Each structure stands twice: as structure tokens, then as C-alpha cells.
Amino acid sequence: MLVDVIPLRDFGRRLSSAELAALEPVRGILRVTRNSDTGWLFARLMYARPGWPGAGGRMDLLPTLADVRLVALGPEGIVLAGYVSTAADGRVARGDRQGWWCKPVAPDAPVSRFEPRSQSSTTG
């Protein structure tokens, strides 16, 4: 699925609404797969433009999320949560917590922007 993604954390620290609004979304193909050995779900955001990617030929646009869970689903998109693996040798390991806000998009759609929900107060 083609999505615009905003990472919601920086080295495990939750980003503020202002920090999120300042981020440029990353557009790519979202792929969620299950590891047959561990049963864990992994999410990858992969290169989605014509030709081979730059940046040393990397296909992944963001670090892979391990032990992924769907934590929100709504008209604004979905939120996936997991861990950025810290294992350098390819083993599965939990590292810093991370979340991705993912908004499905059409290939020719303009880049999505993060719009924090307004906090309305109620009086009773």
C-alpha cells in the first residue's frame, strides 16, 4: 500500500505536535510481514519511485519496525507501533519504541501533512 509516513518518536522519545507538524512525510510502499521463526510482525517502508533508489541503493526509507501492532485506525490513516531493532547482525531485538502515522495515498496525490487534533474543552 502506498502511504505517507510520519515517524512519531525520535530515539524512543514521543515528538510534540509542533515537532510532528514540522516533519516532511516520507512516501513509500508499506509492507507488513510475519517472521515465521518468531511470529513477530515487521513493518517496512520501501522505496516507491521509478529506477533504483539513491542513498547507497537502500530499499528501506525508514528503519524497520519490529513486533508491530496496529494501535489506531481512522479516517486520518493508521498508526503502527513497534520497536526499531538495535541488532547489527540481523537478529531480532527490541530497541527504541517507535510509531508511524501512515496515510494511504494515490500515486499522484500531494504530500500529506500532519494535522494534530484540536483539544476542545467542554464545560458542564
Description:
The chain has about 120 residues and is mainly beta. About 5% of the residues lie in helices and about 40% in strands. It is built from one helix and eight strands, in the order E-E-E-H-E-E-E-E-E. It has one helix at about 15-20; strands at about 1-5, 10, 15, 25-35, 40-45, 65-75, 75-85, 95-105. The strands form two sheets. Strands 1-4-5-6-7-8 form a six-stranded antiparallel beta barrel. A two-stranded antiparallel sheet has the order 2-3. Strand 2 and strand 3 form a beta hairpin. It is globular, with a radius of gyration of 16 Å. The model is unreliable at about 120-124 (pLDDT under 50).
H/I helix tally: 1
SS-based class: mainly beta
- Tell me the distance between the termini: 44 Å
Q: Give the overall silhouette.
A: globular
Alpha-carbon Rg, integer: 16 Å
This entry's quaternary arrangement is single chain
Low-confidence stretches: 118-124
Roughly how much helix do the residues carry, as a percent range? under 10%
Strand content: 35-45%
Question: The biggest beta sheet, please?
Answer: 6 strands, antiparallel, barrel
Kindly state the mean pLDDT as a whole number?
81
What is the number of E strands?
A: 8
Strand order within the widest beta sheet: 1-4-5-6-7-8
